[in-house]
Write a structure and sequence with these properties.
It comes from Roseitalea porphyridii. By secondary structure, the protein is an alpha+beta fold. The protein is about 30% helix and about 30% strand.
C-alpha cells in the first residue's frame, strides 16, 4: 500500500491506532535507531520483542538493521522486524538478506455509535486484574510473570473485563483508553467454554465502559487467519481494516510464538 496515495487523515488514523496499541502493551525496553525502535521485554510476544517503525519512518537502512541485530543478539534473541503494510516496505530487501516473513495480523477499527446489548450479570468490570483473570491468562499464555510486569507500565486509564461460568473466570480481556480511542487487548476464552458467546460479552462490556468514558472509536489487532475472532469483531462493529502487518525473521534457527 502506497502511503502517498492515502489522505493525510487516513495515514494519521493508522498511526494513531498503531501507537495506541503500543501504549496499551508497552515493552520494558525501547531503544530508538533512526526512525525505528527496538522493543524488548523477554516474553514470547513478538510485538514487544521486535524492531518497529515510528511515524514517518522511511526505508530500513543497513545501519539500523545491524544495530537492531546487535541489540537482540546481546539479549540472546533472534532479530524480528515488524513491517506495517501502509509504511515503507522493506520485505524484498530483507528476504534478500535471508529473512523470512510470517504472522500476518490485521488492525481493525470501529466507531462506537451505540452500546452493545445483552451483557449479562456474569460479566464484570474491574480497575485491576482479579486473581481468576490472571490465572486464566497465565494458563493460556505462561510467561514467568512478564505480562504482570507489563500491566504495571500502562499509563493510560485501564479496565479489565471478565465473564464467569458457575463462578469460574471463563473469558477475559482488558481495555486501555487513549484520548477517545479504546484499545482492546488480551482477549481470551478458556477452551472448555468456547462457542458460548462469552468473548462477545467480555469485549462488549469494555466497549460500553469506554463509551461511558467518552470514547468514540476502538481498535484491536487480530491474527488474519483467526476467522472466528474476526467474525466476532465484525459483529461488534469492527468493520474497517485499517492495515495489516507481518514479521520478518532473521536467518537464525529459533523462533518466537505469537
Amino acid at each position: 500500500m502506497d502511503e502517498r496515495a492515502m489522505s493525510g487523515s487516513e495515514t494519521d488514523l493508522r498511526w494513531t491506532c498503531e501507537m495506541a496499541c503500543r501504549a496499551a502493551w508497552p515493552a520494558a525496553i525501547e531503544v530508538r535507531h533512526g526512525d525505528w525502535t527496538a522493543r524488548y521485554d523477554g516474553s514470547p510476544i513478538r510485538r514487544t520483542n521486535s524492531l518497529n517503525p515510528l511515524p514517518g519512518a522511511t526505508g530500513l537502512t543497513r545501519d539500523v538493521r545491524h544495530a537492531a541485530e546487535s541489540f537482540y543478539a546481546g539479549r540472546g534473541r533472534r532479530t524480528v522486524i515488524r513491517l506495517l503494510d501502509f509504511a515503507a516496505s522493506d520485505q524484498a530487501a530483507l528476504e534478500g538478506e535471508g529473512y523470512r516473513c510470517d504472522g500476518n495480523t490485521q488492525t481493525l477499527h470501529a466507531r462506537l455509535d451505540g452500546d452493545i446489548a445483552g451483557i449479562g450479570q456474569d460479566t464484570t468490570l474491574h480497575d485491576h486484574a482479579s486473581a481468576g483473570w490472571l490465572a486464566l491468562r497465565e494458563t493460556l499464555n505462561p510467561d514467568g510473570g512478564v505480562f504482570r510486569s507489563m500491566l504495571q507500565r500502562i499509563e493510560a486509564p485501564l479496565c479489565f473485563a471478565e465473564t464467569r461460568v458457575d463462578g469460574q473466570v471463563a473469558s477475559i480481556a482488558y481495555g486501555v483508553l487513549i484520548d477517545d480511542l479504546l484499545v482492546i487487548e488480551a482477549v481470551a476464552t478458556d477452551p472448555v467454554f468456547r462457542g458460548r458467546g462469552l468473548a462477545r460479552q467480555t469485549v462488549g462490556a469494555l466497549i460500553n465502559w469506554a463509551r461511558r468514558q467518552g470514547a468514540g472509536q476502538a481498535t484491536l489487532q487480530v491474527v488474519a487467519e483467526n476467522a472466528p475472532a474476526r467474525a466476532l469483531y465484525q459483529r461488534l462493529g469492527f468493520d474497517r481494516l485499517l492495515f495489516s502487518y507481518s514479521y520478518m525473521y532473521a536467518p537464525q534457527p529459533e523462533r518466537m510464538e505469537m
